[in-house]
Amino acid sequence: MRCPECKHTQKYREGTRCKKCSYQFVFRKSADGISDFAFHKMIQRLSDGGQQAFTATQFALAICRSWRAKKGALIGCGAAIVVVACIVGFGLGTVIGGFIFFLIFSMLLMVGFWRRSGLPVHKARKLMDRYHQAHPIATLADGRAFRQQTAAVDNMEDPQYAPERILVVERDDLVDMLIRNRFHLSHKTAVVSRSGYPERVFAACRAFLQNHPDTPVQVLHDASVSGFGLTAQLAADPKWAFARERLTDLGISRAALDGGSSLPWLPPDNARRDGAFSADPVKMLRAGCRVPVDYIGPKPLLGMLGAAVVGGTLLLTPEIANAVEAGVEIDYG
């Protein structure tokens, strides 16, 4: 085990606390599929060295991409084994060689299929919760950063601050991620959740729309059955009556899913099952799954949303997700 704090290496039998700096190890790589060192590096990479906040969804998907990258490395090794097996097998005889080739090739196909479609996000979330309990992740956006009345949002209470638009997002943790990364300032956008979180921002938005009724109110949501109906739900909610005439759906829209690209689909939040990479939106929506808005990391997401609020539509960019996955470092800690 390699300590993420002091880089000291020790064996598991020597204890679960670092002998050099007393860091408490959380994972055992043979059982959890990841080490504390790799986990810490992933946090640093996702947060850009502690400079950016990220959601639990972004972190869980980053863990899954790391596992998929490792599976890819195993497939590469397997391909080499196939070549050797074929040489040896055909040397023993055509029938035996063909059988060995078929057996190993079938196993590689099974592993490859899992790598393309499997998304063990439930396991990733459990690991994340374990680590967060032992070592609180300061950059994790959990939807509670602005619960206290004393927690003010930069500039929102400044009478001179005039946002060009209001962005209503589906989840509170997305609000935290966007505000903590100063999206509201860099894009002149007041960010609030469907539940009216943060309360002081919600009150400021209501007062602002009374004085500036032409301000657009854009609704951002996951690709899901409930997400597709969010704009209509807000329009029928008395709490949002002040914005009813200004609501526009930013996405993720149904049309955006028709590109034929394989996207990460997550199960319902209360489901204890894994997700899947799939290019079949009809099947996945019928199963109650969703493509989260935060399916890519903080930096590319902020850029994508910046273009969306200006352009008026959210464009899915699976090539960004593929680039992120391809860039995942494989660290065996």
Concise summary:
This protein has 333 residues and is α/β, with parallel strands linked by helices. The protein has helices at 29-32, 36-46, 56-92, 94-117, 121-134, 172-180, 183-186, 199-211, 225-228, 230-236, 281-286, 298-311, 318-326; strands at residues 54-55, 118-119, 140-141, 165-169, 189-193, 217-220, 247-251, 263-265, 275-278.
Can you offer a commentary on this structure?
By secondary structure, the protein is an alpha/beta fold. The C terminus is likely disordered. The relative contact order is 0.13. The strands form three sheets. A four-stranded parallel sheet has the order 5-4-6-7, with helices on both faces. The protein has a three-stranded antiparallel sheet with strand order 2-9-8. Helix 2 packs across helix 3 and helix 3 packs antiparallel against helix 4. The protein contains 13 helices and nine strands.
Task: Record the SSE blueprint.
Layout: H1 29-32, H2 36-46, E1 54-55, H3 56-92, H4 94-117, E2 118-119, H5 121-134, E3 140-141, E4 165-169, H6 172-180, H7 183-186, E5 189-193, H8 199-211, E6 217-220, H9 225-228, H10 230-236, E7 247-251, E8 263-265, E9 275-278, H11 281-286, H12 298-311, H13 318-326
Parallel strand pairs: 1-3, 4-5, 4-6, 6-7
Antiparallel strand pairs: 2-9, 8-9
Helix pairs in contact: 2-3, 3-4, 3-5
